[in-house]
Amino acid sequence: MPTEQEILETIRKIIPNSKNYLFDDAAIIEKNLIVTTDTLVENTHFTLKTYTPEEIGWKALAVNLSDIAAMGGKPLYALVSLSLPKHIKIKWIERFYKELVTCAKRYKTKIIGGNLAKSREINITITVIGKAVVKTPRRGVSTRSNAKSGDLVFTTGTFGDAAAQNYKTKTLPQIELGQKIVRACFKHPPALMDASDGLADCLIQIAKQSNVKIIIDRDKIPISQNTKKAVEMLNKELLNLALYGGEDYQLVGTASRIDCKKLENLKGIKIIGKVIKGNGAFLKQNNNKLVKLDLQKTYEHFK
Amino acid sequence: MPTEQEILETIRKIIPNSKNYLFDDAAIIEKNLIVTTDTLVENTHFTLKTYTPEEIGWKALAVNLSDIAAMGGKPLYALVSLSLPKHIKIKWIERFYKELVTCAKRYKTKIIGGNLAKSREINITITVIGKAVVKTPRRGVSTRSNAKSGDLVFTTGTFGDAAAQNYKTKTLPQIELGQKIVRACFKHPPALMDASDGLADCLIQIAKQSNVKIIIDRDKIPISQNTKKAVEMLNKELLNLALYGGEDYQLVGTASRIDCKKLENLKGIKIIGKVIKGNGAFLKQNNNKLVKLDLQKTYEHFK
Q1: pLDDT band at residue A136, thresholds of 50, 70 and 90?
Q2: Single pTM value for the model
Q3: What is the ipTM of this complex?
Q4: Which residues of A are less than 8 Å from B113 in CB distance?
Q5: Does residue B92 sit within a domain?
Q6: Long-range pairs for A9-18 at CB < 8 Å and ≥24 separation?
Q7: A37 contacts B81? CB cut-off 8 A
Q8: Could you tell me if residue A1 is inside a domain?
Q9: Domain check: are A113 and A151 in the same one?
Q10: The domain containing residue A87 runs over which residues?
Q11: What are the chain B neighbours of A2 within 8 Å (beta carbons)?
């Protein structure tokens, strides 16, 4: 089977002007509208045994809203496409949809359409349309490519929580904080991304697409007390969870030192590293040695 | 298993203000933007044995563009969400995408994003964003509900072709004609719909949502010479194919008599009936008797 990377490269070669799109959490179209789409598939992202209809309903929308948050946007509309197998009961659909609507209301998003189809496994594809709250100076260009040498690296929230709780945490898109971030940095748009695939993935992607080197401090990675406790109990490697666990749906970004002063005053934001000339994303250990972050390896493999 | 109608009714009860949306081919949002989404599922809409990657790629986008045509819109952007099983080869994806891009270019649509996921069967959900070419006087309100007593019923193209060719016809969204129709009827927006589920379905839906009675003349239903010949050969019931076959992706609508004079001058448009007070959609036979159109029955069952 081709890897996701191979498929993406194939597709990008075929699509005209794909460098303007297809490299970010969401695409920016005219009138400062932001569009994003994400899919949950049964047996890939969830099973009916491990997740309630409510958990699936909330998450299906929330992961899309997180992509809007990563653009500093305000969500407006959602379209919900459901492919359902024969055995699904109306009660399941009702419970799924009620929680999805609860999530939509929480983030002031209107459900304006969708599609129903028959399938052998559940497939939920949601598209969300939002609005940039700050006029984007570079329309259609990836915010992942905005990191500059001299910037600092910041994050919202804590990392490793989803993995420590076996991915049963509720996805809480950082909509309000995302908007505050882009407003604080309105002169120089920040690099910004949501950590759906983990903190390390964010840092590697931003470094790659901005052509810079990123170094974060091991001790500054925000990890919650609960996760520290859970991991002690489970005897798992804490740093691996925080770096590679994924599904925390926090925001990771870089901004100028001046803007980061403003960001530090926002609740939940922490400065964890810096951007310099070079390539790649690195973890600075307590002994000051740099360890390259690599998605193929977890921390313990290259320690 | 719950029927599609039961599922839709359940969903509509849960979603706030669903009467403003969810009853049309596409939703109209601010700035006259039109959004629509549609899904093709393996084993439901196609199999890898019966359809080439090119046929699936073209159709996946074209059925969405047809929904934009049904709003008289101009397509702008598309997001392509692909769920793919392990066994799919990169060559298949390449062929699928190349033809999808050919369709996108033909209808001047930019592909600006999407999603990739793993699944057990292929699921292709595409969202298209377009623009209304005539400012819609009633934003967010179904154009299926625009039919008024006194209107005439018109169609584009011919019906029954897809069914007569075992649904292997190429879907050609009536984008240009859709725009011409709404421009010709700019004072009084027409009822308009695409005949993805067949001519009878369109007439029933428009009658229901506009609270009117629709009568079409049996002899005026446009049927191509090729389909007439094919059906003779296959010994199928011609009228059933034209009314219930579906997948012709032509447009069906109603407009005032004055506007219909203008529409008749457009190539491919034919007047096939009228709108009066009452309820339901009817076929006027050669003996002047009216037969009610019913999706539960094909023509031969109630003749």
Answers
A1: low
A2: 0.90
A3: 0.88
A4: 21-22, 26-27, 35-37
A5: yes
A6: A10/B90, A10/B93, A10/B94, A10/B97, A11/B93, A11/B97, A14/B94, A14/B97, A14/B98, A14/B101, A15/B97, A15/B101, A15/B111, A16/B101, A16/B105, A16/B110, A16/B111, A17/B110, A18/B111
A7: yes
A8: no
A9: no
A10: 25-132
A11: 88-90, 93
